[in-house]
Design goal:
Elements lengths: L1 H20 L17 H8 L1 H10 L1 E6 L9 H4 L1 H7 L18 H19 L2 E9 L4
Parallel strand pairs: 1-2
The structure holds S-adenosylmethionine.
The site of S-adenosylmethionine (SAM) has 10 residues, from loops.
């Protein structure tokens, strides 16, 4: 209950803050495996006009907070959400999960995973793009 209350309050705070900063831009939340999710096809289906714009102007960059090697099992951390909303679990698709450890194999799989994500993003990028990744030192 302690964490439930903490995160519930935090969520409301973030929504309020976002509401005060929000601009009249189009936002879309897409779920999927970031190594192969087809952003263009999904956007095209959701909002054809925006899909066309994405095809011609492309994406100027991404900001991402990726997982690290063997630190967290995100499905477990958010197990309550999968139970509450009956979301399908995809534990085996997590990049760098705790359950795979931090050994040589895990590190190699992690490099493959993050490279796969960046390569999947790259096809949507305009010529002069920026990539911001949150990194833990
Ligand atoms: C450090 S967290 C950042 C979460 C969120 N961006 C934030 O700032 O609160 C890393 C996220 O990457 C997600 N993730 C791991 N493997 C993934 C994959 N193959 N495709 C998409 N997301 C993945 C995890 O589930 C987790 O939510």
């Amino acid at each position: 209950m302690k964490w439930w209350k903490t995160y519930s309050k935090d969520t409301v705070q973030r929504l309020l803050q976002f509401n005060s900063l929000r601009t009249p831009t189009y936002q879309s939340c897409i779920t999927g495996d970031s190594r192969n999710v087809d952003i263009a096809a999904i956007i095209e289906k959701q909002t054809p006009d925006f899909g066309k714009l994405l095809g011609t102007k492309k994406i100027n960059g991404i900001f991402s907070s990726p997982p690290y090697v063997g630190l967290i099992d995100y499905h477990e951390q958010h197990a309550y959400a999968y139970d509450l909303f009956d979301f399908e679990r995809n534990d085996d698709k997590e990049i760098g999960p705790l359950f795979r450890g931090q050994g040589k194999n895990a590190k190699e799989n992690y490099v493959q995973g993050i490279s796969g994500v960046l390569n999947n993003c790259k096809k949507y990028f305009a010529n002069d793009y920026n990539v911001f990744l949150v990194a833990q030192l």
